[in-house]
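Fig. S4 source data, part A: sequence.
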Amino acid sequence: MLKTSVIVANHGRDTTQLVNSLPKGVEYIEINQGLERSIQRNMAIKKATGDIILWLDSDQSLSPGVVKECEDLISLGYSAIYIPEVIVADSFFGKIRAFERTFYTGTYIDVPKAVLRKKCPLFDENMSGPEDADFSQRISGLRATTKRVLYHNDDTPFLLYCRKKAYYTKSMRLYAKKWPQDKCLNLKYRCWDVFVEKGKWRKLLCHPVLSLGVLFLLIVRGIIYAKR
């Protein structure tokens, strides 16, 4: 019987919704010391006693049954599990981001949320932003994707979103030096292939307004990265 430890790096957010989404029997570890999230995540990983590390942000919560699904998949021999992320937002900008996120599940851009403890690395504390992708690069073994989802309550305003992306670019040069062959750094893959592969281009045609919104976001992020 596998035991799951859910770890959360918090910065003062109310995590009631997250805690209420957890099933009985999981170990819950929340670190809220005002430090960089990579440091707090590592503190929680070191403290955890479970066979599986499932890491979440403080504004995320789990759908019913997703922990059991992760445990079942890992018991079949998988080392890391992707969980489809549903961004919950009321604003039009939030809906664009939610639509964009659906293209990334299980791709090179996505990051496993549940990892077998003995295969789970620590986060690189020298990075802020790409540390998630760096974490993913260092997980060995087979990967699977759950059918159940996690919810991300993130209706970030556009200007705050841009400021966050600008902050995250500070670590991009370090990441690119560490993982120069990562497909996430390939402009064609990041801005085209991931949106059209495996028949996903049909979603773009079905939602032309949201698709144009995603194109706008890609341009904005490109400008931010180029300037930095």
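Fig. S4 source data, part B ends here. The mean pLDDT is 95.
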